[in-house]
Amino acid sequence: MFAALRTVMSNRRSVGFAVTAIVGAALLLGAAYESRGPDLAFAPEMAPRAVDLPDGRALFVQRYEVTVAEWNLCFEQGGCSMALRARPDQDAALIPATGLNYMDVQEYVRWLSDVTRHEWRLPTSQEWAFMARPVLPKEPDPIFTDPELSWASSYLVEGLSSRALMPQGSFAATPEGISDLSGSVWEWTDDCYSGEADTGRCPAYYVGGEHVAAVPFLVRDPARGGCAAGSPPAHLGMRLVTDRSL
C-alpha cells in the first residue's frame, strides 16, 4: 500500500515538474518575443536623418511616399481592402500609391504597425509643414486655405490632378534626406481641420503638398459617406512617420 502511495506521489511530482517546465518555457519564449525589435523585412526605407522638431522631439520619416508595390503587399496579406495598379509604363516599386482616402490610409498604417511590430502613424499637419519647409516656397499661396471654404479646399487639391505622377526621387530632398515633399503627390496628415478628436466624426483632414489644405476624408460608399462620399483625387497618397528609431 505504502509503495503504491509513493508511486502515485512520485508521478504527481513528475507531472508538476513537467507543467512547471512547460509554463516556464512559454514565459521565456513570450518574453523573448516581446523583447524582439521591429521586423525590418517589411519596414520602409527611412530618411537618413531624423527631423529635429521645435519641441525637441526627433521625428523619423519615410524617405519616399508609400509606393504601389508596398500598398499591394498590404492587400495581398489581407491588411488593405483594395489593390492598386500602376500603368504599364510605370514601375510599381517606384510609383507612389495614390487615389487613397483617409480610411484606406488607416488600413495601411494598422497593417504596417502589426507586421513590423513597430508603431507607425501619419504626421500631423504641423510636423509635415515643418519637415517640408526647406523645399516649399517661402510664401505659400494664401488663396482658398481657409478650411471653412470646403469647395475651395477641394478645388485647390483637385486643380493639380493633371500633374503626372513621377517615380520616387524625382523631386527635391530636404537636408534630412526626405524626398518628393514638393512633388506631384499630396500627402494625408492626421489632423482634423475642425479639431475634432473623434476620427469617426471628422469631416475633413489636412493634406500636405504645395502647402497645407483641408480635404474631406472621402468615403467611397455614398450610404456611409454622406456629404463626404466620393473618390479621392488621383494624386492623394501618404508618407508615414514614427516617433522611435528602427
TrEMBL record:
InterPro entries registered for this protein in UniProt: CTDL_fold, Sulfatase_Mod_Factor_Kinase, SUMF_dom, SUMF_sf
Q: Which GO terms describe its molecular function?
A: formylglycine-generating oxidase activity
Q: Which Gene3D superfamilies match?
A: paralog of FGE (formylglycine-generating enzyme) (3.90.1580.10)
Domain of life per record:
Bacteria
Q: Where is the Sulfatase-modifying factor enzyme-like domain?
A: 57-241
**Matching PANTHER family:** FORMYLGLYCINE-GENERATING ENZYME, SULFATASE MODIFYING FACTOR 1, 2
This one is known as: Sulfatase-modifying factor enzyme 1
Species, as recorded: Yoonia tamlensis
